[in-house]
Amino acid sequence: MKHLITCGISLLLAWISLALAEEKSEHFEWQLVKDDSDSGIKVFTRNVAGSELREFRGEMTISSTLTAPVALIEDVAVATEWMHNCGGIDALEYHQDRGEAITYMITKAPWPVSDRDTVVHSRTRQDATSKVVRVDLTAKNDQVPANNDYVRITRMNGFWLFTPAADGQIDVVYQVHAEPGGALPAWLSNSIVVDTPYHTLKNMQMIIQAGRYQKAQRNYIQNDV
Predict the structure, then answer these.
(1) Distance between CA atoms of residues 35 and 20, nearest Å
(2) Which of 50, 59, 95, 169 is the one with CA 20 to 30 A from 206?
(3) Contact (Cβ atoms closer than 8 angstroms) between residue 102 and residue 224
(4) Among 199, 108, 107, which Cα is nearest to 156's?
(5) What global pTM score does this model have?
(6) Is 35 strand, coil or helix?
């Protein structure tokens, strides 16, 4: 009996060790790949198990209300002005009263690579205690049939995070991982995960600092912190 108990404990410990090892392999360390001292924008990337495209994370700090960047994100009419390589966005559903939308987006790619398309479900929520605002982004491709003119992005998950900081500033995080649907040249894959967050954040920074959207209000976001 003692031998059986010992064997059982050994097997349990081995299983736990294997599970922890597998969990660790799914979450690789972030690597700093761009640090722009002028804008304060930093870009990190990391490998994702089973994916050829790395996950990206862009960070910056801006002077702004919490609502302003959310209002910019929701304004699909100006998406091509600031979202890197955005070829256009159409709002399929928009529920401003509860901070949810479903949009169809086209992402431009350099010739001869095909442009991509995807349907994105966005959901905005604010933590009642910390006042942190998070916009979750998830691919929802069953909403629109595939278009032969584009390659469908098969999977995408990400978020925007807006955290109140000192002196009327907010810390911004833009993090996304996507499956591009079809092979991409290595040089393009490497540039996408750096250029997309960097230029998107830089453009957002310029628009917000110009004063646009600072007076925007949403009933689900409290600006006073």
Answers:
(1) 32
(2) 95
(3) no
(4) 107
(5) 0.86
(6) strand
